[in-house]
């Protein structure tokens, strides 16, 4: 590509509304532009990297034997009603009507659509196992879209869904996907960890998240210095040896983390998908005057707002909590949003919004033996306490008895899941087995945030001058910067020659033939993060050399013109 004919939309200034480095650099390097909150256009430079990420994902998925499909982004409500998620899925689900008044949504995920497809297409155990994937645009109406494409509303995901006759077969494909994800992230050239994730809310079976390590990550991941143990913090806390936990105080004995059944009941009750997105649910059951136990306090940790909780689902159970203003919440709950309790008895208390942290806190408090009701800390104080109360701390022995625990920040870039028969039961996705008996299929699902990977790679690989791309996903591998080529035919010619030579050898090359000052060109190529750079100048050519600098190198070096290609290889 010739830079003079290419949209090099670099910016000097750091955009004011970009909080994290990858967002700033993606804007400054001219990779993306914002259209509206959580909606981004990929400019040519950004799209090149996105496509390279996609290509690696495709190659490895194909290698694993998965088959590519492409499902519609827009999905009919009927399927979601069948699975129960039309009412359960919270405000992240973008719902819409067509001209005939029929309900649709813009897919945040595709379990329903694939289950519908496969129940029609596959009828015999002989066709199993089968794994289908797509690379496709998802929409999630994130409550707080932020950090550019890192947490966007419209984003690109690779999602795969596998179908099985039995659990053993699901286990095999799950392991295969685990290995495939490792191969993918290895090829990206990123420092990542696969960690056990808490699958409690979705079902008893396994789940792993893949995290790119970066200090700006939104998740805490815990790993052992002495073994392969690695888990996200929720999971690590769930299995922390009881010896490391202070005994609960007397009055907390009735506080229980609910089992799967309770979570499902609560999902039904509140009209949200607690099974899918709520990470921690704390229910305090307390006897009323008649000795019946009931819901007293409920803390959801997830992306739900009070508005999403359907009034009609609460009717007859408790007073609807569909109010939106702080005053109304305070009135109903008995405390300001952003603080906890004392709670109104017999009313489910839904602590929401920025209270994701508070929910964390309450759960910490639970484990540490503090009583939920009657506590009324202000938000900041509560957050401070939360830090003190973290159950898993660095230096703890690990659950498997080997080494000590280290806590790092991670960015969730992939998530694989044994779904079991949750969706296949709801949607009656069955096959005939060897004996001609109808059996419900087991399912696995495997998500990978293609567009988020681009941002995560930058979080992990940058310096004060800009992005430092790993070779495999760089928009261009080599930059050729010609100096004053418009005045020097020798330079122009040597630049063209090198450009052709490297392209023919299979490199993605950007020839910076713009009529800009050398300093501007160097700064742009560094900002964009191209791994290898050759400078073609009159002075160099006179000595028969090009100047080479790797993006990570401190020093430049001269390379004989004829040796440019072997030098790269
Ligand atoms: P998060 O915890 O960050 O909200 P998630 O657990 O809701 O992610 P999954 O349902 O597991 O996401 O989706 C699979 C993958 O899609 C995630 O691992 C992540 O890489 C990517 N992803 C999810 N939400 C977004 C988003 N809003 N913007 C970009 N990528 C996303
Ligand atoms: Mg999410
Ligand atoms: Mg997550
Ligand atoms: Mg996830």
From TrEMBL:
Q: Name one GO biological process term.
A: prolyl-tRNA aminoacylation
Q: Where in the cell is it found?
A: Cytoplasm
Q: What class of enzyme is it?
A: ligase
Keyword list, A-Z: Aminoacyl-tRNA synthetase, ATP-binding, Cytoplasm, Ligase, Nucleotide-binding, Protein biosynthesis
| Matches recorded under InterPro entries | aa-tRNA-synt_IIb, aa-tRNA-synth_II, aa-tRNA-synth_II/BPL/LPL, Anticodon-bd, Anticodon-bd_dom_sf, Pro-tRNA-ligase_IIa, Pro-tRNA-synth_IIa_bac-type, Pro-tRNA-Synthase_IIa_type1
Documented EC number(s): 6.1.1.15
Q: Does the keyword Manganese apply?
A: no
CDD domains found in the cross-reference section: ProRS-INS, ProRS_anticodon_short, ProRS_core_prok
Aminoacyl-transfer RNA synthetases class-II family profile domain spans which residues?
38-470
GO molecular function terms noted in the UniProt entry: aminoacyl-tRNA deacylase activity; ATP binding; proline-tRNA ligase activity
Tell me which PROSITE patterns the record gives.
Answer: AA_TRNA_LIGASE_II
Gene3D superfamilies associated with the record:
Anticodon-binding domain, Bira Bifunctional Protein, Domain 2, YbaK/aminoacyl-tRNA synthetase-associated domain
Any one GO CC term of the record: cytosol
Catalysed reaction equations from the record? tRNA(Pro) + L-proline + ATP = L-prolyl-tRNA(Pro) + AMP + diphosphate
**Per the annotation, which location comes first and is thus the protein's main one?**
cytoplasm
Please provide an example of a Pfam family that matches this protein in its UniProt record. HGTP_anticodon
Query: Quaternary form?
Result: Homodimer.
Question: What is the similarity comment for this entry?
Answer: Belongs to the class-II aminoacyl-tRNA synthetase family. ProS type 1 subfamily.
Domain statement? Consists of three domains: the N-terminal catalytic domain, the editing domain and the C-terminal anticodon-binding domain.
HAMAP family for this protein: Pro_tRNA_synth_type1
**NCBIfam families given for it?**
PRK09194.1 (NF006625), proS_fam_II (TIGR00409)
Function as written in the Swiss-Prot or TrEMBL entry = Catalyzes the attachment of proline to tRNA(Pro) in a two-step reaction: proline is first activated by ATP to form Pro-AMP and then transferred to the acceptor end of tRNA(Pro). As ProRS can inadvertently accommodate and process non-cognate amino acids such as alanine and cysteine, to avoid such errors it has two additional distinct editing activities against alanine. One activity is designated as 'pretransfer' editing and involves the tRNA(Pro)-independent hydrolysis of activated Ala-AMP.
Q: What is this protein called?
A: Proline--tRNA ligase
Q: Which organism is it from?
A: Marinobacter manganoxydans MnI7-9
Please spell out the taxonomic lineage of the organism that makes this protein: Bacteria, Pseudomonadati, Pseudomonadota, Gammaproteobacteria, Pseudomonadales
Q: What is this protein's gene name?
A: proS
């Amino acid at each position: 590509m010739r830079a003079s004919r290419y949209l090099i939309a670099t910016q000097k200034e750091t955009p004011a509304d970009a909080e994290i480095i990858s967002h700033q650099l993606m804007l400054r390097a001219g990779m993306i532009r914002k259209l509206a909150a959580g909606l981004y256009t990929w400019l040519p430079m950004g799209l090149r990297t996105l496509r390279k990420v996609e290509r690696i994902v495709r190659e490895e998925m194909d290698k694993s034997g998965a088959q590519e499909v492409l499902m519609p982004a827009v999905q009919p409500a009927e399927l979601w009603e069948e699975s129960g998620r039309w009412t359960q899925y919270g405000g992240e689900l973008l719902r819409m009507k067509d001209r005939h008044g029929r309900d649709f949504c813009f897919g945040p995920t595709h379990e329903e659509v694939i289950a519908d497809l496969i129940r029609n297409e596959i009828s015999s155990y002989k066709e199993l196992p089968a794994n289908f994937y797509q690379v496709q645009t998802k929409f999630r109406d994130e409550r707080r879209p932020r950090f550019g494409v890192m947490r966007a509303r419209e984003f690109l995901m690779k999602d795969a869904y596998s179908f099985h006759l039995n659990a053993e077969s699901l286990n095999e494909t799950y392991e295969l996907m685990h290995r495939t994800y490792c191969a993918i992230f290895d090829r990206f050239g990123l420092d990542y960890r696969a960690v056990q994730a808490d699958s409690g809310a979705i079902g008893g079976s396994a789940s792993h998240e893949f995290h790119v390590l970066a200090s700006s990550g939104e998740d805490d991941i815990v790993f052992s210095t002495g073994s392969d143990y690695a888990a996200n913090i929720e999971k690590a806390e769930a299995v922390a040896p009881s010896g490391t936990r202070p005994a609960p105080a007397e009055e907390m004995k009735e506080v229980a983390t609910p089992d799967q059944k309770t979570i499902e009941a609560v999902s039904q009750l509140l009209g949200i998908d607690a099974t899918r997105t709520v990470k921690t649910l704390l229910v305090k059951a307390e006897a009323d005057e008649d000795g019946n136990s009931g819901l007293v306090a409920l803390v959801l940790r997830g992306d739900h707002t009070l508005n999403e909780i359907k009034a009609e689902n609460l009717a007859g159970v408790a007073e609807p909590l569909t109010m939106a203003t702080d005053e109304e919440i305070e009135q109903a709950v008995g405390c300001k949003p952003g603080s906890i309790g004392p709670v109104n008895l017999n009313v489910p208390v839904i602590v929401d919004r920025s209270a994701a942290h508070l929910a964390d806190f309450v759960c910490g408090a639970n484990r540490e033996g503090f009583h939920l009701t009657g506590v009324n800390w202000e938000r900041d104080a509560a957050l401070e306490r939360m830090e003190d109360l973290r159950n898993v701390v660095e230096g703890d022995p690990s659950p498997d008895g080997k080494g000590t625990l280290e806590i790092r920040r991670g960015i969730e870039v992939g998530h694989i899941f044994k779904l079991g028969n949750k969706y296949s039961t709801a949607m009656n996705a069955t096959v005939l087995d060897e004996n001609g008996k109808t059996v419900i299929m087991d399912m696995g699902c495997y998500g990978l945030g293609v567009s988020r990977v681009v941002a995560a790679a930058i979080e992990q690989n940058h310096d004060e001058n800009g992005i430092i791309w790993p070779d495999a996903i760089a928009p261009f591998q080599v930059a050729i910067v010609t100096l004053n080529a418009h005045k020097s035919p020798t330079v122009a010619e040597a630049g063209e020659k090198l450009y052709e030579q490297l392209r023919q050898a299979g490199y993605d090359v950007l020839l910076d033939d713009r009529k800009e000052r050398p300093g501007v060109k160097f700064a742009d190529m560094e900002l964009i993060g191209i791994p290898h750079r050759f400078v073609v100048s009159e002075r160099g050519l006179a000595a028969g050399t090009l100047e080479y600098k790797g993006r990570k190198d401190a020093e430049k070096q001269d390379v004989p013109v004829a040796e440019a290609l072997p030098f790269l290889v």
